Amino acid sequence: MIALSPAATGPRIGLALGGGGARGLSHIHVLEALDDLGLRPAAIAGTSIGAIFGAAAAAGLSGHEVRELSLAALGRPGDVWGRLWNLRPRSFSDLVGGIPLFDPEAVLREFLPPEVPDDFADLAVPFAAVATDFYGVAEIEITAGTLRTAIAASVALPVIFRPVERDGMTLVDGGIVNPLPFDKLPDNVDIVVAVDVIGTPVRPAKRSAPNASEALFGASQVLMHALVAEKLKSRQPDLLFRPPVDHFRVLDFLKVKEILKVTASVREDVKRQLDALVRRQTSAPLAEE
Description:
Elements: E1 13-17, H1 27-36, E2 43-47, H2 49-58, H3 63-74, H4 77-86, E3 95-96, E4 99-100, H5 104-111, E5 127-133, E6 138-142, H6 147-155, E7 164-166, E8 169-173, E9 191-195, H7 212-234, E10 239-241, H8 256-262, H9 265-282
Parallel strand pairs: 1-2, 1-9, 2-5, 9-10
Antiparallel strand pairs: 3-4, 5-6, 5-8, 7-8
Helix pairs in contact: 1-3, 1-9, 2-6, 5-6
């Protein structure tokens, strides 16, 4: 388990950013809310898309910087498709039923900002990425070594990305085993903030049943909901936020502007609830409204 930042001063906040594909773009509002309050997490844990934004925050990027980088990377569909075309698989071994399996490490090299370092040791805030050991049938928490490989493993959603080989293991998306990794934060943080971006399957407007892709990704949402529900029976974060992301699909990254607009209320929700909790703990205001 990750340790607290040695420079952390109270309140010591542990931030857990969950998995959910493009729905996780709403994590940006949470990072901006922390900036608004003048707070910096003492430890961060992330799964899948949460590992990307968690690593960016752990590297010292502000919420505003993460927003601008995300808009620059995803805001022009033509550019995104062009970059993905260049990353398309070149061998039959990376095709499954005609569907290309992208190399997650190559995708991260193309889209992850250079401010995110190559090694955990260079992060400003302690960070853990969660992945799944496919053959070992186990949850893997990665806190040291090559950071970008760890992120790639955490985001390696089956059917979209090929697995990542690391430390003798074949790793896939961390959301399969732990879609909301607040249990990976240190026990001695003062406040645990968890952000659930799983969403729920939405019934098609003109059909009575989901199509193949909707069924596949919707089933993963049902599974992840069940995992989180079981975890919450034994342990609760101090603050749990669920942005309104139900109407977005896991691969709706090109809808970055719409997702940010629809989920904008999360920023004020986090500020209000977190500020109130910190005030109760410290009896002192954090920042001017």
